[in-house]
Design brief:
This protein has six helices and eight strands; from the N terminus they run αβββββββαβαααα. A hairpin with a 6-residue loop joins strand 3 and strand 4.
Length: 227
């Protein structure tokens, strides 16, 4: 005589088997995800932990050389709403092609080995570059804190310094007797500069006569750097 079919028992057994199968698969997938995550982040975590550990110590080598801890620089945004600790890297990025981001020039700060954060976005590239240079100089000088507030003043100061160095170079070009560079250089000296024309003229002059051995050879590259 055939056994009576127990529908509830069948469904319970089916549900139990499906649950066991799902748990096995999820366990395998979860283990793989954890292993991938550890392999990707563990080296970085170890490096940063070592950096933090050794930052508290000063070592003296057998020859007497003193090894000082690596000092990080705290940067405060111009509006004083954001502070980041720079781990060494700085870069200026154009945000024009970034979605959900104000248009302009961003200063990105390396806060960890593989992590970059924006501290501020300026409307002018010169201001962002001036902020980067201010931070770079601060790190070189061993400072621990810097407010990036007065980048316009720093940018103007740099422009004035560049113009001061550029003037005698363009005076040499203007009196060289070579029309290619004499005319656009004189226009700059007279206060009526055409910068694209001046740059193109100097580039062409460097191409044609940048290694002839005359006194103007080293001035072409420097002029282009200052413009």
């Amino acid at each position: 005589m055939a056994e009576e079919f127990d529908r509830e028992e069948f469904l319970e057994e089916l549900a139990e088997r499906m649950t066991d199968e799902l748990e096995d698969r999820m366990s395998d997938e979860l283990e793989a995800i954890v292993q991938d995550a550890l392999s990707a982040t563990l080296p970085e975590l170890v490096r940063e932990s070592l950096q933090d550990f050794f930052a508290d110590y000063v070592f003296r080598l057998p020859d007497g050389t003193q090894v000082m801890p690596w000092e990080r620089l705290k940067l405060l945004s111009p509006d004083k709403t954001k502070q980041l600790v720079c781990a060494g890297g700085l870069r200026v990025r154009d945000t024009s092609f970034w979605s959900n981001c104000p248009k302009g020039w961003a200063l990105e700060v390396q806060t960890r080995i593989s992590s970059w954060e924006i501290i501020h976005i300026w409307s002018e590239k010169a201001e962002a570059v001036a902020a980067l240079e201010m931070a770079s100089h601060a790190m070189e000088e061993g400072k621990h804190f810097l407010w990036l507030g007065d980048t316009m003043a720093a940018s103007r100061e740099k422009a004035l310094d560049n113009a001061k160095e550029l003037r005698p170079i363009l005076e040499s070009f203007a009196t060289s007797g070579w029309d290619l560079i004499a005319s656009p250089s004189q226009m700059w000296l007279d206060g009526n500069p055409d910068l694209p024309m001046l740059r193109n003229a100097i580039l062409q002059a460097e191409k044609e006569c940048g290694s002839c051995g005359c006194e103007l050879d080293p001035l072409y590259k420097r002029a282009l750097q200052l413009l």
